[in-house]
Structure formats: C-alpha cells, structure tokens
Amino acid sequence: MAETLRVLIADDETLHNLALTSQLETLGHEVVATASNGKEAVDLARQTQPDVVFLDIRMPQMSGPEAAHLIAQDRPVPIIILSAYSDARTVDEAVKAPVFHYLVKPVDPNDLGPAIGVARARFEEWLDARRQRDMLELKLEERKIVERAKGLLMESRGLSERDAYRFLQKTSQDKNTHMVDLAKKILLAAPLLQRES
Predict the structure, then answer these.
(1) How far apart are CA 21 and CA 31, in angstroms?
(2) At 33, which helix (H) or strand (E)?
(3) For 6-107, which CATH superfamily applies?
(4) How many CA atoms, within 13 angstroms, populate the side-chain half-sphere of residue 163?
(5) Is the peptide bond before 98 cis (omega within 30 degrees of 0)?
(6) For the chain, what are the domain ranges?
C-alpha cells in the first residue's frame, strides 16, 4: 500500500477544494487542512506541517507563488501549483517559486498520484542539492580558516607554506582533532604567537 501523506490544499474556490480533497482521500492520503487564500495557507502550513502542499496560483490576499516562498522559507515541503491557466506568464510566475509540479484545473484524478510522486522526487533532489551546496560552503569556510592559521604560523615561526601545513596536519593527528578545530585554536592564540615572534 502507498504511503499516506498529510496534505494541505489552498484554493479560493470551495468546489475545487472539495473535489481535490475527495480525490486525495481516494488515493489514501489525509487532507489535514484547506485554505481559501494564500495568507491562510501559510499559517496553516506552519500549524499542520503537511507532507505535500497544493496551492492555487491566483488567490486573494496572497498568490500561490508568494505563499510558496513563505512556506518554503519556514519549512521546505513539496509544493504543487494548481492553475486554471496555462499561459506563458502564469507558468513563468510558478517557475520562479519553490514549486515542484504544476497541474492544470480541473485536476484529472489519474494525474494526481504521478504528480505527487514527481513533486516529491524533485523535492528530494532539491534538498540533496541544497545539502551539497551547504557542505561545500562549510568546507570552503573551513579551508579559509586553515589557510589563515597556516599564514599565521608562517609569519610567527618563519615556516614555509609546506612546513606550516605539515605542522597543522601532524599536530591535528597527534591530538586526534580535526585540522579546522586546531586552526581555530591557533587563530584564537594569535596575539600570543605574534608576541613570541
């Protein structure tokens, strides 16, 4: 049996909300909340923490793409845009938002399952890419710290770049600590090292 997902639906047309709720429940999912405007969708997403969010592209108070930005900012989740429009301008508006699928209304029940699957898969890829980016940024930041500590050792102890790096490497191994942690300690001790030189 397929996984039961907790779903939030936001559409200013009550009939669309009811029809989509029925279709999702038929697929075995639980509709945890329905909203009639974008602002309400953002508030309900915060309260209910759904697994998937459906947002109508044009709603009162706040559009679907605007709500998508706020929901993703608070807690990223697979978001599917619903629209009665498929013109280039409307699609472009959706593309610029953190959404992972686009369905044209009225939604065909046969399209719903695959749309959720695609949205969740794209969301996982996006999360993975974001994690990798964060890891690369962290590694770059750590590399800068090691480089600064190496420069300090070169300056205060008259070491070559190679010898300063070897010192960091050997000391981190001897003390069983990460090189970046050792580098941070060296940078904290910079005033003492500079006084010694």
Answers:
(1) 6
(2) strand 30-35
(3) Response regulator (3.40.50.2300)
(4) 9
(5) no
(6) 6-107, 137-196
pLDDT-derived band at 93, boundaries 50, 70, 90? confident
- At residue 123, φ and ψ (nearest 5 deg) are -65, -45
Looking from the CA of 165 toward its CB, the CA atoms found within 13 Å total: 6
pLDDT tens by residue, 39-56: 999 999 999 999 999 999
Q: Using a CB cutoff of 8 Å and minimum separation of 24, what contacts does 186-195 make?
A: 186/149, 186/152, 186/153, 187/145, 187/148, 187/149, 187/152, 190/152, 193/152, 193/153, 193/156, 193/157, 194/152, 194/155, 194/156
- Provide CATH code, domain 137-196: 1.10.10.10
Average pLDDT, the chain: 87
What's the pTM?
Answer: 0.70
Joined tokens for residue 195: 């006084």
Phi-psi region of 49 (alpha: psi -120 to 50; beta: other; left: phi over 0): left
